[in-house]
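for the writeup, i need someone to sanity check this before i put it in the appendix. the sequnce is what the collaborator sent (i think, or maybe the updated version? ugh). structure was predicted straight from it, no edits. if anything looks off just tell me and ill rerun, i have time this weekend
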Amino acid sequence: MSLKWNALISPVILDLPPSGIRRFFDLATEVTGIISLGVGEPDFVTPRLIRESACYSLEKGYTMYTANAGLLELREEISSHLQDNYNVQYEPRDEVLVTVGTSEALDLALRAIICPGDEVLIPEPCYVSYSSCTIMAGGVPVPIRTTAEQHFQLTAEQVEAAITPRTKAIIINYPNNPTGAIMGKVELERIAAVVQQHGLIVLSDEVYDKLTYEGTHTCFAALPGMKDYTILLNGFSKGYAMTGWRLGYVCGNREVIAAMTKIHQYTMLCAPITAQKAAIDALRRGQDDITTMVDSYNQRRRLVVKGLSDIGLPCFEPKGAFYAFPSITHTGLSSEQFAERVLREAKVAVVPGNALGASGEGHIRISYASSTENLVEALDRIGKFMKSVL
């Protein structure tokens, strides 16, 4: 007699929907000749100096575990980097934790702070993991809808209106995935005032901080009085084109970092030493490569926004990250219908907006972290598809 596994799996996990991004990524692998603009991954190879640093570390025999919190040398570089760029200081020994990607940092933070039934405010559209990780931690995700009309920017009034006696935290992600929206210091300070008034924890996901095309990125923890309220999440995947290295970090109050480290030491133990060694040089000498990549993304950003407009897909102008989030409502198709048809008929993979929260319905996400040649061809294919739909 075999086990009835479906009855034995946690109902919390059974009820979680699979990632809508990965679903379309998997569909794309089934169709030949696809141009994939779905997965949010730089098309650049990790810069040479970072790769050489990793190779050198292997030659020197650095193949062992590190401290649970990560190499102290790396934590010191992270601390210096945040001090130099955002004027916020973290003690490397007990306020910085190196993680296996920013995704692990998010999961650790939520599991460390959430008690059953705690509510977490999540502005939408948003990264697919926010809601699911909140649920897995025992919390209740509370979406806050943002729209193109408000430039996909969260307001202090929206935060205030969403707060209940069960609200414990809010996740903020700017530059934003999937919209490419950024937020200025003034509005973030207004949100900070609400946070302080209600004693909320802010999980600030700033993994796209390097990819800001207009203005200057504002680190939430650097706002007056906000360091103690903020768990700062960041990593090396996007800005340094190190997605496969799986390296992130989290900074915050030493007590919450200690709690997160407990979970980390029982689940991951430590991040890979090779990636940590490479990241040290990335922080010390990687700025020129970042500038080159950002300049290229910026050119592609302009190309894609104009191209989408020309083919009849109105698009909010993204000012950060590497995504465009055009509206498809006038086609009469849902986001999933549009994404499936453009995949089958035009052989272009995009992400339906509703995979990024219910507020994303009526949009698709396009990653312009692809070659100019691919982007031009993809726009041409989508344009022909649009003529068949309208």
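The longest helix spans residues 287-310. The chain is about 45% helix and 15% strand.
thx in advance!!
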